[in-house]
Amino acid sequence: MIEITHATKRYGEKTAVDDLTFAVRPGVVTGFLGPNGAGKSTTMRMIVGLSEPTSGTVTVNGHAYREFTAPLHEVGALLEARAVHTGRSAYNHLLALAQTHGLPRSRVDEVISLVGLEPVARKRVGGFSLGMGQRLGIAAALLGDPEVVMLDEPTNGLDPDGIRWIRELLKGLADEGRTVFLSSHLMSELAQTAEHVIVIGRGRLIADTSVADLVARASDGAGVMVRSPDATRLRELLAGPGVSVRSGERELLEVHGTSSAEIGALAARHGLVLHELTPQTASLEEAYMTLTHDSVEYLAPSEEDRPLMEIAA
Amino acid sequence: MSATTITPHPRLRPAAGRAPGRVTPGNLVRSEWTKLWTVRSTRWSLLAAFLLMLSGIAIAAIRVNSHPIPAHLSSIDMSVAGYHFAELAIAVLGVMVITGEYATGMIRSSLMAAPRRLPVLWAKLAVFAAVTLVTMLVASFIAFFAVQAVVSGHGLQHAITDQNALRTVIGAAVLMAGVGVLGTAVGALTRNTAAGISSVVALLWVLPVVISLLPSSISNSVNPYLPSNAIASLASNTRAAHTLGPWAGLAVFAGYAAVLLAVAAVRLRRRDV
């Protein structure tokens, strides 16, 4: 469980994280979304105690990270910025980290084989590709078999096979009851992994909701596509307050302000033939784009304007 | 990377009676020991310092074969003369043991593993100072006995039990460890290799030159208290004018190191990384 309560982080004049409040619960994969520069990495650095919030609190399993006497057992983190001495081998890097907690060498071998780095474990990290560096970072994150796994843009530089591997790994970790929190600036990347999403923009919370809900909400008012040989007649019947109808081509209508059920019933009452009746759903990517694009208007400063917050207790 | 088979995540099951790990000073020392020896710069810098510490042997050989031999030539001082060259290598290594972590981002891994932060700095200093002290002690004793062998036919020979001999020989190794600690403190303050090395060079080598350009009434009273001159008193047999005694010198140098370390510690504790 990660809990962030009214956390604000300022760097001089710039506010990177602005009164952010959310929680990441165990047992599910939670995605952390936002455009580049939204404050995701800053938030993650506050979670692992590398940055102190200017105000507010950030806790993991109920404690400030700096209080932990065995932090590698609590949180395993992969940060976006590199955190490895390039002159050291992968094995020695992991060994030095394991030794801080008195973990055995056998655990180092375990995580190396887990991420598939055996062939290069004794090579200097400086020569690693981006993907190999990510695998090493994931190995380091899993070293202490942590309760919370937090990964910042973990699929950066990974090939499709590596991406699939990460997805399976993260789902497995969540199924074991761990808290899994991963960031991305691409919704599509998270859609297949995360059940829950936290969306931020300009350091502020935009949405804290399930992936399914996010799509449903974005689809709200997306309209209904109707194809009918009696399009002209149907259009007349549909006309009314609150309903708008657009027509791009003959026999095809795009109806807003009413449901597909009502359109179907209306057509049946008047004996009109329908060839197609399709409620439009926004894709997850569209939902996300809408949210983050409108983040400025969406986030008027008053509390009332933040109905999407679902703060888990 | 080529295809990777998906393997189940191996749980870390503590063996019977063995508690899961946690951060202790001893564990941090082991970690810092590994970190120190698994980067190339350590071996090369220590090797360079070791060999330069022996350069007093060559100096002695040259001086006893040039005539006339100066009246007050001390074979004890000659045996430790190598520290003048060796200390640069150790000062630079001292800076790099910490700025190397900042330059590569390793510091983030280090501080995520030990978020109380200060124990990391103390463990790093302890390991580096101990390694420097031991290797430099070996070099210092080798240099002493070799120099005595070189000067044996010229009536300049000293035994290790002679007055000041043991203190000077051990003092040279302490000086090296002290300069290394100072380097690490400066590195922790600057968080940058280039800035750290130039700062430590300015402190130990440029400052004395600048002070010596001042009128002697000022420089004579300031010079003894400069860190490089203060610690040099510990590693010299003969006491020159306007220098501190060996123990006063050591105390002054320790004061500088303590102040720099205190500021570095506060900065490490407070600043984001």
Question: How would you characterize this protein structure?
Answer:
- With 313 residues, chain A is α/β, with parallel strands linked by helices.
- Chain A has 2 domains: 2-217 and 286-305, 3-Layer(aba) Sandwich (Rossmann fold); 223-279, Alpha-Beta Plaits.
- Chain A has helices at 40-47, 71-74, 90-100, 105-115, 130-142, 160-175, 187-191, 211-219, 231-238, 260-269, 284-293, 295-298, and strands at residues 2-11, 14-24, 29-33, 55-60, 75-78, 148-152, 179-184, 196-201, 204-210, 224-227, 244-249, 252-256, 276-279.
- Chain A has a 6-stranded mixed beta sheet, with helices on both faces. In chain A, strands 11-12-10-13 form a 4-stranded antiparallel beta sheet, covered by helices on one side. A 3-stranded antiparallel beta sheet of chain A has the order 2-1-4, covered by helices on one side.
- In chain A, a hairpin with a 2-residue loop joins strand 11 and strand 12 (252-256).
- Chain A starts with a strand and ends in a 15-residue tail after the last helix.
- Chain B has one domain (25-270).
- The interface between A and B is large, with 61 and 45 residues.
Number of strand elements of chain B: 0
Name the chain pair whose interface involves the most residues.
Answer: A-B, 61 and 45 residues
Strand content of chain B: under 5%
Structural class of chain A: alpha/beta
Span between N and C termini of chain B? 30 Å
Regions of chain B with pLDDT < 50 over 5+ consecutive residues?
1-10, 12-18
What's the rounded overall pLDDT mean of chain A?
87
**Oligomeric grouping of the chains:** heterodimer
* Tally of alpha and pi helices of chain A: 12
Mean pLDDT of chain B: 92
